[in-house]
Each structure stands twice: as C-alpha cells, then as structure tokens.
C-alpha cells in the first residue's frame, strides 16, 4: 500500500478560526489534488457542540491530522459510509467501517491523532465535537442517579491516551438524523432550536446503543491473548475449507464466547469480517499476479457464485475483479 500523505496545512490555525459560524448556506464544495471532489460542513449545533461532516473520494491515500484542533474536546465520530482508520501514535490503530462509531477524548498530551482515508474509496463521516464539560452535562441529562452503570459504560467507551475505548454499531436512525441536519434550511431561532433538538435525538440513539450492550466483563489470561493474536496471524493463510468458528475454537482451545468477543475486543473487528477481508486480499493478488478468472477465483475462495464474489470484491476494493483480469 502506498505511503499516505499527511495533510496538516491548517495546523497553525486555532479551531475557532476554521469553524463557520453561519452555516445556513450550502455545504462547502471543493476540489484539491489529494482530496478529489469532496464536500464538507462545519455546523454549530448549540453552545459547545459542533457537527463536522466530510464526504469524498480521495485521489490519493491521505491522513487528516486533527488532534491540534480538538484539545479538551470529546468527539463522537460516525462512519456513515466507506471505511477509515483512526490512529493515535502507538495507542490506537482502529479500522472504522460503515455504520460504526467511536468516541475519542483529546487530551493535552502532545500525541498526534490522525484519520486515514484510502485512495479512490468513497467515504462519508460525521463527528459531533463537544466541549468536555458540555459532553458530561449531556450524559447527566440522559442518566439519572440510579443509572450509574449505564453512565459508566458510556465513559468507558471513550478512547483517550492509552485507554482502549470501544467501537459501536450505529443504526440507520443515526444516519437519517445526520441527513436531516445537513438538509435543514430553517433560519435564525427556528434553526437554533431545531438543531439543538437534533443533537439530543442523536445522542439518545447513540447512548442507548452503548448502555444497552452486553455489560459482561471479559477477562482474558495472557495465554488467551496469545491464542487470539496467533489466530489473527494464521487467518491470513488458512484454507477456506479450514475456517469456521467451531474449527477455530477446537484448534486453539478457546470457547466460542472468548473467541468471538475476545477477537472483537482486542482487534476492533469481528473474526468473521477480518477473515473475509484477508480472503479478498488474497484473491486480489491471485487475480492480479496469476490472471485468475472471476469464476475460478469465486470457487477457490469460497463464494457460491461469481456474482456474490464480484459484489464482495467491489465493496472491499471499489473495483470489479473483471477489471483487474482485463
């Protein structure tokens, strides 16, 4: 994979200077050498809360440096379509897929925080950006004194420094609310009240998805972690016929819960999704280097039909396998 370009031209500008205070016009449209055709919007929602929206199809793989803008802020980042990778030096390297989300608290620790987007892959991401005290006040609105566990689950889900945080799936309701915000053309106080309501509507769906998740604590021994890391390494070369959850449990001596929940917890991706990605990566190289036909590749890599293989291939690489063969 090519070395990503780091975009940091705005790093010397205070965040308030690049925030549009009046967003009643259309979203900004621009074309840059790296970004390609893209659109963005920075929309103040209410006091201490901003919505940042980005969409595009990069001409080159690039990393967007943003930690310098968001000191003492809390971000809820929502991947509406496509994929991205969030990086925080050695602490976090998390792949974010469509309909996934994470929270991130930016501390004044000097660490470089980046979001990486891949060349020629269309993406759409929105982030709610809170002043830290505003975010905590929002939590208090949703959880009363008898809901300490639910509130603690939300705070535990935040990435910060070396704290691992968690990824969560987001519902179509969240996606719809973001679209409604972007299409809003109300003016003045009507707009202010509408956007403030939409913030709490978004948070209601988001906090519920966190507080209603399984609260079981997963405890792993160092041996369990080694087994999960070995599984991750081995999955890249396993034959399709050898891979099933039951087979992996038996081969590596883990129960089903530790394998599935543990893999997700450690690597921020399910074991099934990770394996499918590895299979498609192998298929890509096989087609490119050995001129393998689409039908042959589909059968070799465990797909029932060339059509289902082509669809999964396109979703992963944004190109049809037939285009590589040609």
From TrEMBL:
Protein name: Helix-turn-helix domain-containing protein
Superkingdom of the source species: Bacteria
Gene3D superfamilies (alphabetical): Homeodomain-like
Organism expressing this protein natively: Pedobacter segetis
Domain HTH araC/xylS-type: 225-326
Record Pfam families: HTH_18
Keyword Transmembrane helix belongs to the record: no
Keywords associated with the record: Transcription, Transcription regulation
